[in-house]
Structures are given as structure tokens and as C-alpha cells.
Specification:
Two copies of one chain form a homodimer. Helices cover about 35% and strands about 20% of the residues of chain A. With about 625 residues, chain A is of the alpha+beta class. Chain A folds into three domains: about 375 residues, Glycosyltransferase, CATH 1.50.10; about 100 residues, Immunoglobulin-like (Sandwich), CATH 2.60.40; about 110 residues, no CATH class. In chain A, the strands form three sheets. In chain A, strands 2-6-7-8-13-10-11 form a seven-stranded antiparallel beta sheet. A six-stranded mixed β-barrel of chain A has the order 15-16-21-19-17-23. The radius of gyration of chain A is 25 Å and the shape is globular. The two termini of chain A are about 50 Å apart.
Chain lengths: ~625, ~625
């Protein structure tokens, strides 16, 4: 099969209602307000070196770690998101703000290329002494992603030059050569950023260093983090490692030997993304196999139904199989965003709809839930159940998720289409237009739909000249009974293989394909190993997971409500909600709280009939505080 | 009503099977093995000053806190538990070990009386600079409790002399007088220890300082913890407070104004215990009222059905009303032990069975669950549900709970009886014998029963000479239809008031009272505000909360099981289990895990009939790892 490559987002125009609204919000509100917050929280000031470091405003842990050590990354990620925004609409004010940050970074850079504002400002002598905890390479990676994005959109090289000087310093410092340290990052990120730079420049040194980091990770004995700890703290005063094990950073064994998804979820997802990149680029079957084994592990035992990842706040990550608590779910927004990255890489390593299904699931649920309707409030953790306590924040002490969701939305068009020499693949639907080149022929593509609210999809294929190529249409895994017509003639949708129906023909201007993806409301049940979901049911329609929110089900906490198994689920369009959505409704039963006086009693609660209304999960907590649940207790009968 | 005072445990002989076994285990296994662990973990060595401090083996937080700062308290608590053990059986080896620790403490004591081994060994100049976090008064309190217990059992004053010198130093340093600091403890404990010393010695200065600590707590502005932080860190480098608020230490407002139970659960319970002590001793209606308001708050909104307290590991404490997650329940053993202390003080402030009910509930469930059957393994956190991951530990980095449960069991007899000038009250049953003095007459009491397995209770009352007094028998709140006979004649059990049936008569030698407390298996339901327990039912019999454990319900995780509402619960004596217990059995249904391949699917799980076996909660996790649940999903019908 031919190798597909994503069509970059600037070539994909978002025309559909769903993404158009999200994109406008991010461009108009999120990106500017994030810059304001970066200023208010002192993050922009932290780049202005030399100047006396401000007092520590955040706790510093035994190992020297403070959230401030990753502020550079927040700036990098904002520049990346802002650059994507500029690709949609140039904006002199935003550009000036990016340039000002680049000014600061350029001035801060040490003569030898080193550029980490935390260390330069506070502890210049201690650079590279604690890769395990202190995020220098992670910061470099995010700055690099920002520099790549800014260059791609504006053609301005200055930031990229700064970062390339920094990378040369890093390449000289670390590696397997004589006099080099065999270090690698405690928080993976730079690997995937280096792959982006490699794709941009074609310079092999970037690919090589990414491969070095991947290959060196977890090699032992000795473990590099032990070596640097010994050097840092001496033999005597061994500060214990806060996270107690190397699973936390997926450095417990070489990556090719890893077969269980462990540790910090975002770290893991960034690592696997780069592993998949490298596996594709180097045609490395061992690495590809490791990716596939890890993919199966997370899919079979560790993913929330919303595509949230990492149940535990303690390690911001994974625990053990089937441990998916709902109310305390960490399910960090960043982790679902990073899962999208990984899924996209897997999809291009092996065009299988199962990857696109998860990409879509994470996009519409676990990732998008991190951003409020107004574009200026966030969830860092994305619980699947709430007693009404959690609410969206306008910023985070550790603001990683805020810019992860803005950069995702600002570049979301990049996940819709891929092209190969002899074909084009549609992974997502939702109303896009794009001009692509297939086998040397320019082809205009337009997909018109009200997806994800409706599965009625119309695609026009307009090659400049008639051309024979594959049109691969993703038939989502959640969809039964898809129908496809080409110029009004039924195609055999059942011929779809591994999630894609491939239509090969000589395409002519004005060819029309229609796709009917039925999306009746469905019930999902969790593996009995997920003890939290025993006796419960999740509601889904198309790619959207639904939840009950108190706002639509007034009268007490939504946990009072049960859904009878026999109750019919109805999809109800609601133009009055969130600019037009589809809710799910059903009859249910509800417990009466009114007659309770004590905490425990021997008589069960009274139950009365009620009706229930579910909204898409990603929209929860946009109308004030209130209880919410995804997994609804099911009542037999 | 006359004022009742507890009959101290050495005067109460435990003869019944239940407590006899627990006591023997603690004397023979727990106390000796705890001393061994204190040695292995360097805790005993930490008293041997002066000598170079060992390397930090535990993380030190930004505020200087490390678990090692409360090692003195662990020694104090072990001496207390060991002293109680000696009251049952003198043991030269244990006494030598206590004396050795006292040798070290005596040598370590500074000339001015100060005695905190962490500060003396590491940072002698920093003593009393961080009452908020660093546990100096807390340690002093536990050492004092140890000294009081050791003196009471052996009559040896040396440790008590050491502690009284230390207290004189503390009294000179803190207070409202000129040149004194208005400090108080960040972790309450010393207050209740001072009350014990006051009861022992009658010296008013101890009562006065306890009252000072209680009264000063939470006074502001300025808040003392702010004052000392300013002094410690200067104006500029304000390390943020790890726990971010003064609710954590119940110092957010003066104690008489507190009406919600907040913060660290053990801190709160120790504080309330001392408040109730003081309210009784000073006849302080305001303090009594505060205790009652706080009691109602925790009972109505914050207590697990096992009498576990504090759902959150984050603050080891309370969160918000009805937040009682099962699997992640912190419910620290120490907190349930401390609830027993508080309940006992409340009971003696106001003889109401509601306090004894909770005392008993905590004893048989949330506290006792912290100690394994073999007496050498522990739970620090006591979850109400498990997927099989948690298991008992043989020690804890922070071993506070281990000695809390051993000192409780070693002194458990002290919770059974109270006497007044004109009466005796039975709070607990389980087979005890005691000689008490009532109005100058010696009265032999024997209570024979197989409680908590059976509610058939026989009490003999043998006054030396015929004497008129009250016999107050607790009729547990969980009991319906209690029957009482005096010398074979029916008494009017329905005349019981506030949990006690008071029988006034002229008692003669060989008077016999029988008490029949029916204990059918019962179902309990939680307030709908406890969203985690919606649709679930807890099983109880007498004072014991039950749980399903995988060991008795093989075939997968117990969470596969549901209990039909109509299923009859049967109490089944099982001589083969744990030396003889009563299990509960019922028919149920179980989900079939066998046919699951994916994490989520659209078809519900298959259910098949099964039978279920529940064991007392306190016995879980004694037969290897396996899943467990207290709140069982209920099936209508």
C-alpha cells in the first residue's frame, strides 16, 4: 500500500459549523487571553535575562523541582499555537508579541547556545545536572515546535536559528561519543519536535539525535539518571526520587522491550509519538512492533471511554489494568491531545481505521473537554463524574494543558486528510475544503456535512484533469450500516477494509460521493475489570460520548438518576443549546433525596419516574457548577 | 445525672473470645515486632544523641518537613502501647527495651529541658521555628502519653520526670505572658496528653496549658503560623504553605467558632478529644456546644459506614460533605482510633448511646481493620473497595497507625465500663470481668457473651454488701427489640433513654441480668448525596460492617456480584474461619467476565445466579491479595 502523509492544516479550510466555531473561539479569545495570562503569571518576565530572579512563588520540592522550571515550554507552546492562528488570519499584534518573546529568548541565549531561562536566571552552574526532573530538553522541544511553526507560517528564521544553535550545543553535550554524556530527557517531548525539524529541513543530524534519545532511553546499567544523581548529590546524600521508579518516565527498560504502558501519561504519549515517527522514517520493524504492543495495551486495559488517559493524579499517569475511576480521573487534557499525536503517527505508519477511531474519539471528547465554550477556561483533569465540586479554571499553576488544547484546535485541519502518490484518505469529517496534489494532479476536495451531529456527508472531488486514484473513506468503527454512493450509484460499503472504504476510479471534475454514516444513540458497557463501571452504561452517538449534567436534569445531583435498560434513547436536536447540538433523552428513574435525614439508614431510597437529558461530554461545565456523570447506573427492565 | 468516669483498662479483664484473641496477638506479636521495626528503620537510633545525623532517607519538602521529624512520637507511642501490654503481663525484655529508650531520651534532653531528637540532632538552632509543620509539640505529646502510661503501669517516674522538665521548658517558652510566644501546635495531640497528665497529677499548670493551646488556636490577626513564617523566612522568600490553608490544622478560626469538620482528620479528632476533655473538666458550655456541633457535622455528612474518616490522601483528611469515595478512601487507621478517643470523651461529657454507638462502630470496623490477623501487618488507609491491588504492609514510612492500633487494643478494656457515685454503665459487651467501687461498695461485675457474634449477654452483679445503684446498659442504636431480664424477670427494655436502659435497684450478691440484643443481618443505604454509593447496599450485623472478599467469592473480582433487594441475608457461623466468625450469605447474580475481549462494547455483560459470602470488614486482606467491596451493587427485584 502506498504511504500516506497528512495534508498540513493550512491547506485544509474548516467550513463546517462545529470546527469553524471552535477555531474562531481559539483565534479570537484563547490565543490572546493566554498571552495575557502568561504575562500576569510572570512567565513572560521569566525570559527577560539577566535580571534578579523573582521570589519563588511555587513550592520547590526536595529534588529541586518547581513548576517554574517548565515555563519556557509554556512560551514555546503559546508561540506554536499563535503561529497556527496566524496561518488562519495574520495578526500584527500577535506577531509583535511573538517577536518580543523571541527577542527575549535570543538575548537570554548563552554564547555556547544553551537556552533555558530557569537555569540561566537562577542556577547557571547547575545546567544539565538533573535531566530526570528539571525539563531542560522538554523545554527545548516545545520551544523548537514553536520555532518550527512560526517559521512555517511566517518564513521568519530568527527563532529557528536560535533553536538550532541550542540544538548544536545539546548535540555536542549528549551522545555516545567521547566526552559526551549519555543523557536523555526525563520528560519526553524533544524527540517528536526533532522529527518535525527533520521533516522541515531534511537535516539528518536531527533525526539522528531523536534516534539517539529513543535508543538510549532506559539503557542500563548504569541508568543515566542514577549516574547524574551520583554526580549531583554525591554518594552520601541521596535524595530519594519523588516518583520512586523509572516507569514514571518510561526509562525502566529500553523502549523496544517495553510492552506495558506505564508512568506519566503525557510523557508516555509523547514518547510513543516519536517512536512511531522514527519507526516510519527508519522503517524500523522492531520499533513499529513496540508501538503496536503498547497501543494494544492502552486500548485493551487503560483508556477511559472518553479517550482520557492516566487515572491517577499522584503520578499524572497510569496505574494498573482496568483502574479507571470516574470521579477522581486525572485524564489530563495534555494526555488526550498527545494521544491524538500518537494515533496520527500510527495511522500513517499503518492506515488502519482503528487508529483514526481513537484519534477522533480523543479529539471530540477527552481533548476538547479541556477547553471551555468561551475559550478562556480549562480543565487540566477531566473527570468522568462530578458531585459538582470541580469547575473550569481560568488558568493553571502548571498551564501545560491550556496551550496544548489551543495548539490542537488551531491546527485541527491537519488531521482530516492524507495524501499518497495514488490516493487521498479522509480520516475525519466535519466540513472542509482543500486543494491537494495526487500523482501530480491538483485535486479540489470539499466535504460538506453537519458532522458530528449528522452522518450525512457529501464529498466533491474535482481533479484539474481526470485522474485515476484511490479515494479512501474512513468508515468509523462505531458505525453500523454505512452507505456510500458515487455520483448517485451505490458502492459496496461492506467492502471496507480495516476501517476504510477505498474507491478506485478515474475521477472527473464534479464527481460527487455521498456517505451516510448512521449514528443512532448507543449504549456502551465497560469490561467487568473496570469495577467502577459495573452496572453502569455510557451513552454515545457517533464519535461523541454523552454525559448527564445537573443543568439539564435539575432537582439534585444527577447521580440520583438511573437509566432502565429498556428505555429508548432519542436523539433530539436542540438549536437552543450551545449554538445547536444534539442531545440524548430517555425515560429514567430518580431517587428522592427529600426524605433523607441521616447519613445512613436501613430503608432504601424512594424512586420516581423521571426523564433524563444527556449532552456531549466535551460541553460539560459551561453553565456553572453542577454534578455530572458519564457512566449512568443502569436499571434492569 | 451523675458524672460517669471510665473504669481504666487494667481493672477490666478481657475474657471473651473476640478481644482475648486480639489482645494476645498484640501482646505476643505486635508490640515486640514493632520494636524490631523501630530498630530496623533507624527510629530508635535517631534518639542516640549526640552522633552524626544519618543521611536523609526520606524526601524533605520545601518547608523543611520530612517524615523523620515525627519519629519521637513513634517511640512515645510504642512505649505507651508496650506499657499497656505490661499491665496485662509483665515482661522483663519489653521493660528493658523501654528503659533503653528512656536512657537515650534522658541523655538527649538539653540542659534547659528541650527534647526533640530531630532538631537536637540536625538543626538545634532551629527549634520552635516551625510549629506549623514540624511536630515538636506533637512529639512531646506522644512522649508524654508514653511516660504517663509507663508510670501508671510500673510506678517508675524517670520518663515522667524527663517529660515534666520538657513541659516546664515549653510552658516558659509559649503563652500569653511577657516574652512568651503565642504559639501552638500544628498537629494537635499534646492537649489530650496534657489532660492525661493533669488527671494523673492534679497539677493545674497542665490543665492551664492545655486550655491555653485550645484557646489560642486559630486566633488572629496575626495568625501565629504567619508570624513564625515571617520570622523564619523573612518577608521576601515566602515558601508557600504546602497545604495552602489553615483548615488543614483546624487553626482557621478559634475553636469555639468552628462548626464544620475540616482538614487533616487525625489532627481534628485529637483536637476535639481534648476540647471535650476540657469542656468536661472546666464545665465549659461553649466548648461543649462546639464539640456537639462538630460531632453532628461529621456524623451527618462525613463518616464512612465503617467509621472511617477523611476521604482524601491529599490532605489525609476531610473534603466536602458526602464526599466518601470507596476505592480511594483514605480513612486512616489513626483517624478511626482518634474518633474512639473523641467518642469516649463525648460519652463522658453526656452519657448518650449515640456516642457509644460510634465508639463501637469505629472500634470493630475502621480502627480494627488497621491490624492484620497475624498482628504484624497493617493498613494505614482503609479503603471500602479494592480491585485487589492494596495489601497490608509490614511497616510504614510513617508508622503512626501501627502503634495507634496496638495501643488501642492493649487498652481496649478501658472502653467497656464507666462508674459514677451511684451507678455503673456498660458501653460495650464482649466478655469482661471487673471489680469496681460504687458509692463506696465494691462490686464484682462479670459480663459473659460471645459478642459481637451473638447478642446473648449475661451479666452478674456481685456487690460486697447489698447496695442501691444504677446499672445502665447500653442498648445499641442498631438494635431493635432488645430484651432484658433481671434475675429472670422481664425488665422494660423500651424504657431505655438515649441509648441506655437504667435499672435502679438494691443489688445483691449473685444478681443476674440477661440482655438479648437481636442482631439480624441488615441492609444499610447511604444518603443520595454520597454519589459513590448510589444503587448500592452495605451489609451489617450487630456492630460489624461486612464486605465481600474475593477469597470467599472466587471466580473473579467481587465487583461482578450484585445483591437482589429481595434476597434473604443469612447469618452463618463458620468455625473454620478466623477461629470462628459469623458470615453473611445470600443469593446474588454475577457478571460473566469470560466473554469480554475489548475494554468497551455495546452489549451488556451476561449475568448468572450465584451465591455470595460476606465477612466482617475488619478481617479483609488476611488471606492474600484479592478484590473486596463493602458497598454491594443492589439489584431490584
Amino acid at each position: 500500500m502506498s504511504r500516506y502523509a497528512p495534508v498540513p492544516f493550512p491547506q485544509v479550510k474548516l467550513e463546517g459549523q462545529f470546527w469553524h466555531e471552535r477555531l474562531d473561539t481559539v483565534l479570537d479569545r484563547t490565543v490572546p487571553s493566554q498571552h495575557k495570562k502568561l504575562g500576569e503569571y510572570g512567565i513572560l518576565d521569566s525570559l527577560k535575562l539577566p535580571k534578579p530572579p523573582p521570589p519563588l512563588r511555587f513550592p520547590r520540592h526536595a529534588n529541586g523541582f518547581t513548576v517554574q522550571v517548565f515555563w519556557d515550554s509554556d512560551v514555546g507552546k503559546w508561540i506554536e499555537a499563535a503561529s497556527y492562528a496566524l496561518a488562519h488570519r495574520r495578526n500584527a499584534d500577535i506577531e509583535a508579541k511573538i517577536e518580543a518573546a523571541i527577542d527575549d529568548l535570543e538575548k537570554a541565549q548563552a554564547p555556547d547556545g544553551y537556552l533555558n531561562c530557569w537555569y540561566l536566571g537562577r542556577e547557571p552552574d547547575k545546567r544539565w545536572t538533573n535531566l530526570r526532573d528539571n525539563h531542560e530538553m522538554y523545554n527545548a522541544g516545545h520551544l523548537l515546535e514553536g520555532a518550527v511553526a512560526y517559521f512555517q507560517v511566517t518564513g521568519r528564521r530568527r527563532f529557528l536559528d536560535v533553536m538550532e544553535r541550542y540544538l548544536d550545543h545539546i548535540y555536542a553535550t549528549f551522545g555516545t561519543g567521547p566526552g559526551q554524556r549519555r543523557g536523555y530527557d526525563g520528560h519526553e517531548e524533544i524527540e517528536l519536535a526533532l522529527m518535525k525539524l527533520y521533516y522541515l529541513t531534511g537535516e539528518k543530524k536531527h533525526l539522528d539525535f531523536a534516534a539517539y534519545l529513543i535508543n538510549e532511553r532506559g539503557q542500563q546499567p548504569p541508568h543515566y539518571f542514577d549516574v547524574e544523581r551520583e554526580r549531583r548529590e554525591g554518594g552520601d546524600s541521596k535524595q530519594p526520587y519523588v516518583f520512586a521508579n523509572y516507569e514514571y518516565s518510561q526509562s525502566h527498560k529500553p523502549v523496544r522491550e517495553q510492552d506495558k504502558v506505564v508512568g506519566h501519561a503525557v510523557r508516555a504519549m509523547y514518547l510513543y509519538t516519536a517512536m512511531a515517527d522514527l519507526a516510519a522514517e527508519l522503517d524500523d520493524a522492531g520499533l513499529k512492533h513496540a508501538c503496536e504492543v503498547l497501543w494494544d495495551d492502552v486500548m485493551e486495559t487503560k483508556m477511559y471511554v472518553t479517550a482520557g488517559l492516566g487515572p491517577s493524579a499522584h503520578n499524572e499517569g497510569f496505574t494498573h489494568d482496568f483502574d479507571l475511576p470516574n470521579q477522581t480521573a486525572y485524564a489530563e487534557t495534555c494526555a488526550s491531545v498527545a494521544l491524538i499525536f500518537w494515533a496520527q503517527r500510527m495511522l500513517h505508519l499503518d492506515l488502519d481505521g482503528k487508529y483514526a477511531d481513537i484519534l477522533e474519539l480523543a479529539m471530540f471528547n477527552g481533548a476538547l473537554s479541556g477547553l471551555s465554550r468561551d475559550g478562556e477556561h480549562y480543565f487540566y483533569a477531566n473527570p468522568l463524574e462530578s458531585d459538582g465540586t470541580p469547575t473550569r479554571w481560568d488558568w493553571h499553576t502548571c498551564p501545560c494543558c491550556t496551550m496544548n488544547v489551543s495548539r490542537l484546535v488551531a491546527s485541527v485541519g491537519g488531521y482530516f486528510l492524507s495524501v499518497a502518490e495514488d490516493g487521498v484518505a479522509f480520516h475525519l469529517y466535519g466540513g472542509i475544503a482543500s486543494d491537494v496534489e495526487i500523482g501530480g494532479v491538483k485535486v479540489g476536495l470539499r466535504e460538506v456535512s453537519n458532522y458530528p451531529w449528522s452522518g450525512d456527508i457529501a464529498i466533491s472531488v474535482d481533479p484539474e484533469t481526470p485522474a485515476a486514484f484511490d479515494l479512501a473513506l474512513r468508515i468509523p468503527g462505531w458505525c453500523q450500516g454505512a452507505k456510500v454512493q458515487v455520483n448517485g450509484e451505490e458502492a459496496d460499503a461492506a467492502a471496507a477494509k480495516r476501517g476504510y472504504l477505498t474507491i478506485h476510479r478515474t475521477w472527473q471534475a464534479s464527481d460527487r460521493v455521498t456517505l451516510d454514516l448512521p449514528m443512532p444513540p448507543t449504549r456502551l458497557y465497560a469490561h467487568p475489570g473496570v469495577i467502577m463501571d459495573a452496572g453502569r452504561v455510557a451513552l454515545k452517538r457517533g464519535p461523541l460520548v454523552y454525559c448527564l449534567e445537573e443543568f439539564d436534569n435539575p432537582g439534585g445531583r444527577v447521580q440520583r438518576i438511573k437509566l432502565p435498560r429498556s428505555a429508548e434513547l432519542l436523539a433530539e436536536p436542540r438549536a437552543d443549546l450551545f449554538g445547536g447540538i444534539v442531545t440524548l433523552t430517555a425515560r429514567g428513574t430518580a431517587i428522592d433525596e427529600g426524605d433523607w435525614k441521616t447519613l445512613y439508614r436501613t430503608t432504601p431510597a424512594l424512586q420516581t419516574p423521571t426523564s433524563l437529558v444527556a449532552i456531549p461530554y466535551y460541553l460539560w461545565s459551561n453553565r456553572g457548577q453542577g454534578s455530572m456523570m458519564v457512566w449512568v447506573p443502569e436499571q434492569p427492565g
